[in-house]
# Entry
Amino acid sequence: MIASNSRFQRLRLCAIALLCWVSFAGPVLAQTDPLPSWNDGTAKKAIVSFVKETTTQGSPKFVPVPERIATFDNDGTLWSEQPIPVQLYFALDRVKALSPQHPEWKDKEPFASILKGDVKTALAGGDRAILELLMATHAGMTTVEFERIVTDWIATAKHPKTGKRFVDMTYQPMLEVLAYLRANGFKTYIVSGGGIEFMRPWTEKAYGIPPEQVIGSSIKTKFELRDGKPVLTRLPELNFIDDKDGKPVGINQHIGRRPVMAFGNSNGDQQMLEYTQGGGGARFMLLVLHDDAAREFAYGPAKGLPDVALGAFKQDLYDQSMKQGWTVVSMKNDWKQVFAIKKWSTTD
Amino acid sequence: MIASNSRFQRLRLCAIALLCWVSFAGPVLAQTDPLPSWNDGTAKKAIVSFVKETTTQGSPKFVPVPERIATFDNDGTLWSEQPIPVQLYFALDRVKALSPQHPEWKDKEPFASILKGDVKTALAGGDRAILELLMATHAGMTTVEFERIVTDWIATAKHPKTGKRFVDMTYQPMLEVLAYLRANGFKTYIVSGGGIEFMRPWTEKAYGIPPEQVIGSSIKTKFELRDGKPVLTRLPELNFIDDKDGKPVGINQHIGRRPVMAFGNSNGDQQMLEYTQGGGGARFMLLVLHDDAAREFAYGPAKGLPDVALGAFKQDLYDQSMKQGWTVVSMKNDWKQVFAIKKWSTTD
# Structure
């Protein structure tokens, strides 16, 4: 039985190979631009040169396939994060959905303000308010139940300003970089301050990144038998914060290798880029600067752009980037297209 | 430049494909037994049947490739763990190596007994003694330095009874299962109570399992600049214990999918197998019973075998296996060969 199965697989491989041989004969694919949504400029050139140098056998910068690890921040690097990160919109919607079961929220912050529609006052409580909000909306259910809640929400939830679904606000140029790197043997990872379980239900369809290549912040879970069924229950207790100096820690914990390429957009990514560069040899570090108010949002405060509470790219990080030779992408000048061309679909 | 690189890769693929086509024409490979070190019996049959059912298109138990996750305990499942786990031998050797820098150890347990060669007394302090031993030998250096220490040690360290190197005491039948599963689209993971950073330096060469597919217990690390260089320093503080009900938690944290197959050998693996089975549908659970005193070690205490301090397979777990339909492997009866046939080499 094994023999016939193995035989079948070999036959399939050979069929694919013959197709490959036929297409190799044609010149079309060989001339395709892997990054069509990028304007020709130093950023695009830097990406393409680096990939060529690290994947060409015999090149002094050649990197073997198993070591081709590329890590990407999510919020602000792969999709929009303004005026507040998508996961916060999710939490606000969950407060509204759960409020009938929590009459006490009417008199308790940050819930009272959220239920009145006053997000600004709700978030004025800072980290403590956000933490309370996250625990009330992200814990208490099993991991399977939470996955279902996120999956249902993300399929329709829209950005209040653009009217687009959040999943349609991924960045086309970055989707092209992800695909280009994978085509060249790189393993692409998300390394985000956002919740690991909030991202995993949709990253495969949105970015081609499977759950096991998503690293993020997390709350604790507990294994238990519920009605005789083994489940993991989500506890209202922080487990790990995958931001700033947590990012190198998360990368080491999950991957156990130092990245060769790292992509971010804010001061929360600084240590990930430093850690990547610290490996020596061929390394590539990139930061996206949001300077395109017309097509997306403009914020820094680097280069005099408006300051923001979450996702700031400060001037000192910009100066460090210039000094260290990191690539800084101007969304305005480097990107022909901002948002994903193809609409996100659960049936993809 | 990209075009020529892409062209080169296509050419390589086609060359591989032509070789494949030639070998397909021959009947030899198609008849190869994927598990030659397993005696024909219920265990071998169960493994082969399950793989066939879950990988045959159109089968009611078909599992898509991305969901083909197989998790393996390490100590006692993939290599020997008696009379004490290999990582403890490593810790004992480190105490001896570090003792000149720690004159105070002469009067302090568990170090004093270790330095006198009395391991039994040293470990009589139980979990507390082991924890102290691990922290003294596994923390204080960078992750890169620790990797080097492990790599150097594992290349030569030998088992006191068999005289074999520990890396040559991996189990040939399990190496065959790992290779067989990967050939059928399964992603193989280690999920061990052992230290994640102790395993990663050698699992790729020993098992074909890369660092990012190793899950284990860990201590905390801290990102910092040391002499201006960004490093992760290992702290003497527990981070996560990947044993018993920690195994499903670790699996969810690292993989984000429920395994389809799970392999273990002790009560420390019970919850991993329960969690795997709890996914419903096609699932495969297996436990190795060490009942071969002549070729390896015999311990349970299931089925009246001698009891052990670490790695016990208790009677209640055996009874649960029978009740739940888990496969229990008798090393004595199911395995033709116990230890790896090919010697481990750093140059493989």
Observations:
- DSSP finds 13 helices and eight strands in chain B.
- The CA atoms of residues 54 and 62 of chain B lie 4 Å apart.
- Chain B touches chain A through 71 residues (CB under 8 Å).
- The longest strand of chain B covers residues 214-226.
